[in-house]
Amino acid sequence: MTTRSSRHHSYGDHDSPQSAAGLLALQSLKGVGPKTAFRVASFGDQLDPFLAERSLNWDRLVEEALRELRRLNENQVKAISIFDPDYPARLRGIQDPPLVLFLSGSLPALAMERMVAVVGTREPTEFGCSATEKIVTALAAESWAIVSGLALGIDGIAHGAALKHHARTIAVLAGGLDRIYPKQHEEMAKAIVNCEGALVSEQRWGTPPARASFVRRNRIQTGLSVAVVVTQTGVVGGTMHTVRHAAAQGRPIFCAEPHTDNEKNRGLRILLETPANRLWEKLPAWKDAEPLCRRLGSEPLAHPITKDNLDQVMDVLRQLVETDPQTVPAERWWPELGPPSRRADRDEVERDDAQAPLFAVSD
């Protein structure tokens, strides 16, 4: 029997299921994942039956979550609920946004409209290093925030170039914010925070980075961004998972146009030259994405970036911000959710979710 009182819980209460503490409490329960937690939190009359069915004490669950939040606060980390107005609007609009986003650094950095992800291989050639430096320099001059993953290679170069040119940069981590990875970038992580940037993660404090988490965090990089720039990639690697997330979310993709057929440029060639509806045949990370590829059409997925068209690319990025529905709350896509106890509504939501990734893509 739950001891939660019957009083009304207003939005923003620490013990509301829509607060960061409430969502952490729900997700701490065995067998409760993000979808269930979101549905329970979305309907005020569903929490009590949910708790009673499991003989749970809500106040005790929330107090445990609040202790976790107090520990985060002691380490200058903020937990942002998906229901919080501070939650990034663009990220909220993807198919599977994190219910709680952990942040170290500048909260205003996440509110910037001009955010672009810059990603690529961990082992770049001189071409990849040069392309990243030049593209980020141009973006910084236009006051774009640079989003990347703090990895070795292109990620580190992108963050470093942003810092050098006094642009804000956001690093999305695969583990908890106390688990900076790789260790070589601990000083860079501190610099990002000290220079009005941010470190963000969906992983709770103390969680080590796991292989699956690196793939999942890529959707946050693309979800925060209005577009994705790939400066160098081969066929295999995490970058192609990032590109797949970007395509599923309807984010435009730009690739540095290589001058050689180096193996580390092969992924760029495929993205720039292969019809999007055939990418599942070419890229291991896309092997089960044939339905998505069919919806992407017969044109190549990526747009080229060269020395000669960099100014035009900047113009396109500016236009993307002006027409991005995720920056206008009234126009954001959001599924119609039914109460979690009604199976028919869950089926409807699942069908809606299948359509969500391409809501921003025109035919």
Overall mean pLDDT score?
Answer: 85
What separation lies between the terminal Cα atoms? 52 Å
* Cα Rg: 21 Å
Number of separate strands:
9
> What is the CATH C level class of the largest domain, in words?
Alpha Beta
What does this structure look like?
The protein is about 45% helix and about 10% strand. The chain has two domains: about 15-75, no CATH class; about 105-325, Rossmann fold, CATH 3.40.50.450. The protein is built from 16 helices and nine strands. Strands 1-2-6-5-4-3-7-8-9 form a nine-stranded mixed β-sheet, sandwiched between helices. The N and C termini lie far apart (about 50 Å). Helix 1 packs across helix 2, helix 7 (about 125-140) runs parallel beside helix 8 and helix 10 (about 210-225) packs across helix 11. The radius of gyration is 21 Å and the shape is globular. Strand 3, helix 7 and strand 4 form a beta-alpha-beta unit. It has about 375 residues and is of the alpha/beta class.
